[in-house]
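Internal tracking record. Fields below are filled automatically when a chain is submitted to the structure queue. Please do not edit lines marked as system-generated. If the sequence contains nonstandard residues, flag them in the REMARKS field before resubmitting.
Queue: standard
Priority: normal
Entity type: single polypeptide chain
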Amino acid sequence: MKPLIEICLESVESVIAAEKGGADRVELCSDLFEGGLTPTIGTVKTALKKSNIKINVMIRPRGGDFCYSDEEFEVMLEDVRALKDTGINGIVFGILTPEGDVDIVRSKELIELARPLPVTFHRAFDMTRDPYKSLEDLINLGVDRVLTSGQEATVPEGADLLEELVKIAGDRIIVMPGCGITERNFPKLQEKIKAKEYHIYLPKEISSKMVYHPGHIYMGGLLRQSEFTITHTSSQRVSQVMGLL
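SYSTEM-GENERATED OUTPUT FOLLOWS
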């Protein structure tokens, strides 16, 4: 059975490109520089209007850790309420306790609010202190899938744990490897891990249409990307991965 391929992206143009490349599903975010935040309602609605691919939407109010204040959690609840009836396929979230465990109480509340949509617990899982306990916690919560790099920086580094988690999970939850997978290393990783789904970021850089470039002004902070380079999903790279299945 061929694994399902989900493409991580942050724009309507990228959603269209992923669909053109033959992807099965996308995870729509904003600000992938921060690891992915909640996209605007306008982005979500336009992506749904311009494509037919299944769209899972990130629910993450800020960058940084996954231990949220009461106000931040309220934002997450409001985002789920706003998005669940737009026609999206599912939601993606992750909440931890200060001790590094899955936040059972808040996760349950978000899941109940999101239903009947499927839910994915994202790479907050990789920041938990015990992956085996966390996996069972997510299974008990009824989470549909968990996105993980095997508690390492990338999937190639976490491949051993990922292989083990896939076996432990069985049919109880989908363990979806993500981070650092490319068209070059995917066949080898799939042969080892044997997951049912994979989460892949396949970008290409596009030059800005701006002719005038004031080089001394930046919109971001000290860690910044060029104002005149735009990143979108590469439909060609997606096609290459899909052709490996």
